[in-house]
Design brief:
The protein is mainly beta. The chain contains three helices and 30 strands. It has two domains: 253 residues, Jelly Rolls; 125 residues, Sandwich (Jelly Rolls), CATH 2.60.120. A seven-stranded antiparallel sheet has the order 20-14-11-16-9-8-30. The protein binds fe (ii) ion.
Length: 405
């Protein structure tokens, strides 16, 4: 929900006749929180209820997923850079970490989008484009996206995602509640406040309606794979169901580029929550972007730009490393995910704390997610975990450990 938006043809009032070439269109209200929260109203040429077949299916690694049975408490490093790309926007998805509020996974794509579309009926989704742009086709219209965009797709949106060159890597969050602009960045009218880290102009949304094109969309039946209750089912439509005559409302996909996030720097180190970008129930998503670092100097003391050690006893924290110098954390590379759970402290690797004093910039680019319930790894995540990450804070004799955060 960014602001009110409309495309195409809509009647002057809700729930009144609306025709195209004398044919009555089918109105569909996409509502949130029952009928009490934001909604969009869509005008379908083909009713979205005329499936000609429904059957169950499975997408291994994504749905269903298997949580690990034992997860002893320690700091972890999940090496998603070791995952081989395998599939399209849907079949390549792998869930890595999960709790009741949020699932975190990746999609490493090496195939063009198949004939199928997908709708996540249990979650809002937030895709972070690690290395490529592309095009998100949705029932609300096509939405082009760029490298390093966050693309937010509301719960229940039928979509298909195409990547430039049919190959690319994404970090994907699934949230059982809204993924939205945090409340503190809205004024009483819902407008993003002037001291927010972004403004309405930074968000992009569909600018035209989707047009059915047999050369791109193929012939029926048209399969929609729907995820609900951690199961997937295929709903087949005889006629292409996602080209609308028009829609309006507050629920639709948006894209936001991480480089449009305006970072903050204090005289002395500010807590990581100043990087907050989006929020859902039980978690936040933060953006670490290249920026000036803390600059206090006085009376023989200086700011320490490297984060202090911390035991955030009510939060699990994951960081997805994208680009730049991760203040040289040992063994961490692009696509690494670190999981620093509640219950054990974490902080800079040996040497980096001292080394950061006097520096004035960081080039790091990373996405962080803090959750208020513990994250459980899937079997798949456990299979790509670095076994000894927890011990990389131990400085051994004659070992030059250069690291950070
Ligand atoms: Fe931390």
């Amino acid at each position: 929900m960014i602001h009110y938006h409309k495309l195409g043809s809509i009647p002057p009032k809700h729930h009144v006749t609306h025709r195209e070439n004398d044919k009555l269109l089918m109105e569909q209200c996409m509502t949130r929180v029952g009928f009490d929260s934001t909604y969009s109203i869509l005008y379908f040429r083909t009713p979205p209820t005329d499936e000609c077949a429904v059957r169950s299916m499975e997408l291994p690694g994504f749905c269903p997923v298997k949580p690990v049975e034992h997860q002893p408490l320690h700091r972890r490093h999940i090496r998603t850079q070791d995952i081989k790309p395998d599939g399209d926007f849907l079949t390549s998805r792998r869930t890595l970490l999960m709790n009741d509020d949020v699932h975190v996974g990746v999609a490493k794509i090496n195939q063009p989008a198949g004939h199928h579309w997908f709708s996540n009926a249990q979650s809002d989704e937030c895709w972070f484009a690690y290395d490529k742009g592309g095009l998100l086709e949705t029932v609300y219209g096509p939405l082009p996206f760029k490298k390093h965009d966050y693309v937010i797709i509301p719960k229940g949106t039928p979509y298909r995602l195409h990547v430039e060159g049919d190959a690319g890597t994404f970090l994907v969050f699934e949230s059982s509640s809204y993924i939205d602009v945090p409340k503190q960045f809205r004024n009483e009218a819902g407008q993003i406040t002037m001291d927010g880290p972004y403004c309405h102009r930074d968000f992009r949304m569909p600018q035209e309606l989707l047009q059915y094109d047999e050369s791109k969309h193929g012939k029926g039946p048209f399969p929609l794979i729907v995820k609900f209750a951690n199961q997937v089912a295929v709903h087949e439509y005889e006629h292409f169901p996602w080209d609308l005559a028009g829609w309006d409302g507050y629920s639709y996909p948006v894209a936001f580029n991480i480089h449009d996030y305006q970072p903050r720097t204090g005289a002395i180190h500010l807590p990581p929550t100043i990087h907050i970008t989006f929020a859902g129930r039980g978690f936040i998503i933060c953006s670490f972007v290249p920026r000036k670092v803390d600059y206090y100097k006085g009376e023989g003391h200086q700011a320490i730009p490297c984060p202090y050690g911390h035991a955030s006893v009510d939060c699990d924290e994951i960081l997805y490393y994208v680009e730049g110098n991760f203040t040289s954390r040992k063994g961490i590379e692009g696509q690494s995910i670190s999981l620093h759970p509640m219950g054990v402290p974490h902080g800079p690797h040996p040497g980096t704390y001292e080394k950061s004093v006097g520096t004035d910039r960081t080039s790091e680019l990373a996405v962080m997610c803090d959750t208020f319930k513990p994250l459980i790894m899937t079997d798949f995540a456990a299979s790509i975990e670095q076994e000894d990450y927890h011990y990389t804070w131990v400085k051994r004799e004659n070992e030059a450990i250069e690291t950070s955060k």
